[in-house]
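Structure, all two chains, one model.
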Amino acid sequence: MTAIDVTPVGAAAPEHVPYEPPAAVRRGGTALVLVLLIVFPLLFSNPAVTSIGVFSMIFLVAACGWNIFSGYSGYISIGHAAYYGIGQYTVALLVLHLKVAAGWDTFTLLPVAGLIAAVLAVPIGFVLLRVRKHTFIILTVAVMFILQLLAFNLTSWTNGSGGLELPFPTWSGSFFNEPFYYIGLAAAVVACVVSWWVRRSKYGLGLLSIRDDEDRARGLGIRTTRTKLIAYALSAFFVGIAGGLYAPFVGSVYPQFGFDPNFDLAVAVLVFVGGIGTLSGPVIGTLLLIPLQQYFYLQFGNDNLFLIAYGVLFILILRLLPGGVAPAVTQLYRRVLVARRLRATEPPAPPGTPAAPGEAERKEGTP
Amino acid sequence: MLVLQAIIDGILVGGFYALMAGGLTLVFGVMDIVNFAQGILVVLGAYLSYALYSHLHIDPFLGLLITIPVMFGVGITVYWTMIKPIKRERVIMSLLTMFAVGTAVEGILDYIFTSNLVAIHTSYVNASVRLGSLVFPSIYLYAFVMSVLILGGVYYLLYRTRFGRSLRASMQNPTAARLVGINTDWVSAFTLGIGVGLAAAGGMVFGLTNSFDAASSYDLISRLLAIVILGGFGSLSGALVASILMLVIQDVVAVVWSPTWGQTTFYIVLVLVLLIRPQGLLGRKAVRAQ
């Protein structure tokens, strides 16, 4: 696995050109995105548009959570719908058995959904994390399907393929989406903050070192199993919350939509398009693709053309920006910066002298 | 007796699952890529046979003479246009690329054939052969014979021909294979062609034995990946053993317990086996670690 966004400590950056935009730009950008997300439902009150917003928030929570494990550890999970489904069923079963009122009371169950997903992720992860690479990828899918089949078969709990119905909140139609949107946004902010903390902490460094070379990381004294397991449970927590938000929003839970193979791939795709293993990647990928996908769906959904459009678009993105949007932007920024520095430090060459050898060296150092 | 019947059914159906999974495992072994589109390509093969049968009245088995070369061409085209340009993170990028290709193909199939379930109804679909108290649907017998023939052909290609030797060399060590003058690009392209061609053959049988639509691909790909993992990535005989094992387990559990638990049991067996042998039943130990 190539490191994408890690600032190499030893490698001398040519002329100390930073690998990231300055803090002011990053903070300003983050604040701008956050403000835009907060005022979004106030500007567009059309329920069709705000429901796209709710789906974006659900996927944003899931993508940030997924990235904490798969992005930072390099273990690609295509089975996190397992926790999406667990989150959905947790909320549905608690609402139905404890007779929780629909609406705001249901949202108090979200942390429970996350916690149950995380607790179940520990034994599952312990088994899964014994294998690596492709086998790990496929095993995650297998576990997801085991859970899906259990949801189909344990009919006394889950009502099998009949699914569970959740009561809808009694909010009026024009205000229905907004609470889901803001709760989703809050959960997404928490997920991003946790992701940021992991990225900056010593624990996160251990996780990143596992991505770069697991055997060597172990040799350096990192408790690899424990490190991976914590990240796995952490990401399951957020994906569980995403599921817990989805179930009351659509008002029903079915095995094939809870433990949904499409969800698995969708989340991986979002993060990959944005830039896997980066902090901003999941956010960029989700805010770019989910609205687009929903737009395609609304526009061409009748003739199934949206799948073709989405597939072609996805191929194009993979071809044009193989590392993802976020790394491409940082690289572009850095290239501009390096070029500008080179031009600034270059003394105007006296006519007749050949190009200094130092120049060639410096150019080699640029990415 | 029911159990015996279930076991024999499992072996017969396992034969054609081995066709589809064999394509997947070969492609992985040579190119290190997971062909996530194999499921939808199988369905594409089924639709091609369906179209040939319903519009031109060509028998599906005869139609393979058309569909396999067509799908072979599809595989080669996909290799040169999609897989070859991938420079880094090959494993996950190729998986995502194939997923994207699969999504587009699914959309196209949905558009052309709509999402109504179809099935290929030839005259022999409902016929069966009786042997004592055992009953075999004759379509399963035909399919099994065809699968054995095709897999035998692939074996011959792999172990008795010059191309097979270059293919196995590329599998073992791509760099060294290039050094001794093997054009690994063409080997990879042909391998993907063969893999997709096998999907055409498997798809034909799938279309004869199931009603299907484009969305059937998700169930298929998860089963195929499970088979390939259980057998060991890159091992053709592993794919055969694992497919038969999977179908036998499923059928036997369906008889002695309940049909709903068949597939769950298989996945649980898969997880248990991998705990003991992470490389699968017949897989090589991963020497190309990391």
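Confidence is low (pLDDT under 50) at residues 286-290 of chain B.
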